[in-house]
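User:
Can I borrow your eye for a moment on a structure tokenisation matter? Would you put together a sequence-and-structure record for a protein of your own picking? Please set it down just below, with no commentary around it:
AI:
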Amino acid sequence: MDKRISLDGIEILQTLGTGSYGRVRLAYMQAEKQFIALKIIKKTEIIRHKQVDHIISELAILRMIQHPFLVNFIGFTQDDRYLYFALEYVPGGELFTYLRNIGRIENFQAQLYAAQITLMIEYLHSLNVVYRDLKPENLLISGDGYLKLTDFGFSKVVEGRTYTLCGTPEYLAPEILMNKGHGKPVDWWTLGIIIYEMLVGVDPFSDDDPIAVYQKILKGKVKFPRGFDKAAKSLVKHLLVSDLTKRYGNMRGGINDIKNHRWFSVINWHRLSKREIEMPYKPFISSPGDTSNFSSYPDSSNMPSPVCSDDDPFIDW
């Protein structure tokens, strides 16, 4: 189903986040009486950085996916200077911001979050989509406390292996760094990073120098602080394995090696997938357009005064 939207009747409001090629802004669709997140991408920037294929892939994947733990795609349009992706607005802010505010997460809450991330990856992999940019900044918190995955800019449909270097330094799997070709197992590696980061408050290979980060990843030695949950430690060690034949999620047992791990023994997977489990944390949201859970950004003077030009050939709808 085509999801072409018109900018007429959309009021563009404050910035929710920024990236290399544009920003995400809160917007209000007046006819639908609905707040949305509007991802606004500068055409000149994605052409200059040779990211056109990534953007086309992102759009194709957004149109393909439908899952309770992934942001819903509402529609797309463009004008002479910008592409616009209209997405579900998730008002609880980023897991990144929440983590920074509280330091670290208690074990049970981390189990609930990690289980949701496991279901997100399972669904994407069932479509042969490798996500490739799993990190707390891309996990949003819904009003009911459940997570939603956003930003599919690095995602790619991969049947076997791909060789593009992309991702965020601290979260890159060793096979990406070594340019050996990579596929679905990179997402399971990153699940291990996020479990560690939720429980400790910092990622396991953290360093101010990106080169030092890469060296630590390739060495693969993870230091666990005293008091780190033993079952969580076991799962993280099974995920942060350089040898793909031994990495959980990529072995003969597939995702069941992860779901049946003892750290997840408290999880009722069926009830979780139906969003029937009460979340320990629910963000305070005063109204549907409340942005208080997001960081503040100065508004850029050159973003956008849209002029719709529906016949622009940049993306052939």
Q: What stands out?
A: Residues 303-313 have pLDDT under 50 and may be disordered. The chain has two domains: 1-91+285-307, 95-273. The first strand starts at residue 10 and ends at 19. The CA atoms of residues 224 and 311 lie 55 Å apart.
